[in-house]
Amino acid sequence: MHIDTGAMYRAVTLKVLRSGVELAEARAVRGMLASTRVTLQRGESGARVLLDGEDVTEQIRSPQVTRLVSRVSSLRAVREAMVRDQRALGRDGGIVLEGRDIGTVVFPDAEVKFFLNANLDERVRRRLAELNAQGVEASEAELRREIQERDRMDSTRQESPLRKAPDAIELDTSSLSIEEQVRAVTEHVKAMMKERGQ
């Protein structure tokens, strides 16, 4: 099973936007989290994200959510709740978790860790294509600023900052297709299993 943990933080961010909770009010945020349920379900075209039972898979990719998600995900109460849920999902193994703190905070003892990266130009191109596919018009310059700001915030936050785990395998995906990325990861895992006689 594949879990996009970023989608979980995006779902919480969507709830913040809908509820009007002030991020500076820790008690209000904790209260909102107590009645929030984020679940992931397998769908025909990939995982579906449910927020309190409502399918919000498309809504969580909106520009409004994207602009706020780093602020919401930097809150201690939010990170504690999401990390707890993510650890519960991966407790029995046999799972792939994707996120900015998986190898350092959520599962520091994971069997195998990859740190995927891409240059800024390619990340802007991919995000622009994603938004265009949703029928959303976006400015390339604005997207570039947003991505840089999100990286800055995620790398410098106090709670679970974005950083490469010392034992993670780094893979620059800038010039790789999805298929090539999958091949690189699976070949490494197969080699690792062969070494272990599995």
Q: Quote the distance from N terminus to C terminus.
A: 20 Å
Mean pLDDT, all residues: 91
Q: Strand-residue fraction?
A: 5-15%
Number of helices: 8
Helix-strand makeup class:
alpha/beta
Q: Number of domains in the coordinates?
A: 1
Count every beta strand, where a strand is a DSSP E run of 2 or more residues. Answer: 7
What fraction, in percent, of the residue positions are helical? 40-55%
CA radius of gyration is 17 Å
Oligomerization status of the protein chains: single chain
Name the CATH homologous superfamily: P-loop containing nucleotide triphosphate hydrolases
Strand arrangement within the widest β-sheet reads 2-3-4
Largest pleated sheet: 3 strands, antiparallel
CATH architecture tag: 3-Layer(aba) Sandwich
As for the CATH topology, it is Rossmann fold
The string of secondary-structure elements, in order, is EHHEEEHHEHEHHEH
Describe how the helices and strands are arranged.
Elements: E1 2-4, H1 5-19, H2 26-34, E2 38-43, E3 46-51, E4 54-55, H3 63-73, H4 76-90, E5 96-98, H5 102-106, E6 114-117, H6 120-133, H7 140-156, E7 169-172, H8 178-195
Parallel strand pairs: 1-5, 6-7
Antiparallel strand pairs: 2-3, 3-4
Structure write-up:
- The protein has 198 residues and is of the alpha/beta class.
- It has a single domain (2-195), classed as Rossmann fold (3-Layer(aba) Sandwich), CATH 3.40.50.
- The chain is 53% helix and 14% strand.
- The protein has helices at 5-19, 26-34, 63-73, 76-90, 102-106, 120-133, 140-156, 178-195; strands spanning 2-4, 38-43, 46-51, 54-55, 96-98, 114-117, 169-172.
- The strands form 3 sheets. Strands 2-3-4 form a 3-stranded antiparallel sheet.
- A hairpin with a 2-residue loop joins strand 3 (46-51) and strand 4 (54-55).
- The radius of gyration is 17 Å and the shape is globular.
